[in-house]
Here is the input.
Amino acid sequence: MDAEAVTAAIELNKQSILNAVSVMMDQKLGDLKRANEDLAEKQVQQLKKMKSDSAPKIKRKAYQDQFDFTQQVKEKLVEAKTEAQAGKTERALQALAEGEELISFRQKCILMADKSEAGWLTVEEYKKNELADNSDDEKRMFKAEMRAKKAKKENEEKRRKTGQAKRSFDKSFQPPVRFYGNATSSVTSAKKPGNCFACGEEGHWRGTCPKLSGFRQRGQQFDTMSSKKL
Here is the structure.
């Protein structure tokens, strides 16, 4: 075998070895990439589970809506961070874009509520249906505004009727006014403004003065005793 043949055989062998190593490296890198993707997916699922398990119970609906929105944005940021750490740039950018869309939609809802007479009720009516395209969005806002105004009017009417019913109920069970004293004085439990012209004290007038009433009673008793002696 001449030198050229030996050299060609060596080069062929080297190329075969390099190809085999390249294939093996590609397989290892592919396995590592899939492992990282699986790990990232598991972390995202764990975060979502932790969120659902540890979500606090908020009493007021307005605060609950605000908390849910900030939680959604937070999840997208955490998802983007996890995907970036796993080397999945495209998925990280996608999560960031979804978070940006959430913020943009929230700002749109705030502006809608600010312009509407019905306030946030219009937003709730608007969000009941799926998002429409731009050509139908204005009509959808108008319909939501109409429904919100109707709901607001019905709620106000309901509260008005409830208030009237409560006042009527309270009035029907109101205890009668009690009168104190004898036939010559009718002292009610109501406190009178100003001072009494007879004794100078506050809370009653001369006509219902308890001290003056006492003087009158003693005068009547004295007159009775005097008439008996006569």
